[in-house]
Design goal:
Layout lengths: L2 E8 L3 H13 L4 E5 L3 H12 L9 E4 L8 E6 L15 H17 L5 E4 L4 H12 L6 E3 L3 H15 L6 E2 L2 E2 L7 E2 L5 E2 L2 E2 H7 L6 H12 L1 H9 L4 H15 L4 E10 L5 E12 L2 E5 L6 H21 L2
Parallel strand pairs: 1-2, 1-4, 2-3, 4-5, 5-6
Antiparallel strand pairs: 7-10, 8-9, 10-11, 12-13, 13-14
This protein binds nicotinamide-adenine-dinucleotide.
Nicotinamide-adenine-dinucleotide (NAD) binds next to helix 1 and helix 3.
Length: 314
Amino acid sequence: MVNIQKTAVIGCGFVGSTIAYTLMQKGTFSEMVLLDENHAKAEGEAMDISHGLPFAHAMDIRAGSYDDIADAAVIIITAGANQKPGETRLDLVQKNARIMRSIISEIKRVNCEGILLIVSNPVDILTQVALKESGFPKERVIGSGTVLDTARLKYLLSEKLNVDSRNVHAFIAGEHGDSELAVWSCANIYGIPLEDFAKIRGYKSFEKEKDEIYHAVRDSAYEIIERKGATYYGIGMAAAKIAEAVVRDSHTVAPVSVSLSGEYGLSGLCLSIPSVIGRGGAEQVLEISLAGEEKEKLKASAEELRGVLDTIRQ
Ligand SMILES: NC(=O)c1ccc[n+]([C@@H]2O[C@H](COP(=O)([O-])OP(=O)(O)OC[C@H]3O[C@@H](n4cnc5c(N)ncnc54)[C@H](O)[C@@H]3O)[C@@H](O)[C@H]2O)c1
């Protein structure tokens, strides 16, 4: 039986501990189990994060083992090596695929029935690995995908147009990585098409700005890692938002990494497409009409990922 009030975070490094801290502050769950290969690290994080509880919500936070997470509603996996300066997400593939397989075999051993939320990179590849190894229905295996990149896009657009980022509706699709694409044909500010809004804000043309923003989004992780060695606050918020959508059954639309079965003419791989997220996980993948150039870019992104998947298929 799944306990909808319970979550687990596997991997308590920069990303896992930040997600745990964010979830504690939000009060989304009443129970959270932290796991790490380095058990002392999980214990230390559980202690440190628990000390914030008097300022937040009543909640039980502890370090544990796989036997303690069998009934968790959302299992968030962040274990694995992170990108080193100059390293792409795809460079991490072999070592993190091995780690993912070992984690999933433990999750299967204890018969978890919850939703798996994969965050470790390369996230699209590892979501596919988790799906295959677990044998779970595809709705139950979600990658955080381009939810973070989408937040970066919204933020940068809001800065350029001097508008609240929560009024910006735009998203990044495809790989969470170098081949991702901005779906400009759907971008709007409070329902006003992006180009019209940019005109209202004084831009004659917004093409150059769009291009700059896309590149800044795509290269954000590199820029941050170059300066501080890792990224974790943005993904902390993004992962917490996805977990919250499951627990609250909110039918939130977000571009999570999901396994495709024919949508956009693609199948047999995971990449980010806006999907409806609720108690069942990624309950519906939205097949929307894209501009011709966007369709091509999505296909190219899928090809890139398929090439990497082929290198790890046994
Ligand atoms: N999807 C995204 O948007 C996004 C954003 C940022 C980082 N990431 C990814 O998240 C991952 C974690 O990054 P980080 O900065 O926290 O790295 P980190 O090195 O700080 O933490 C990784 C943790 O995983 C643990 N670990 C390793 N193998 C394990 C295993 N088999 N079982 C349990 N725990 C294990 C390590 O002990 C360590 O504590 C990386 O793959 C990184 O690229 C993803």
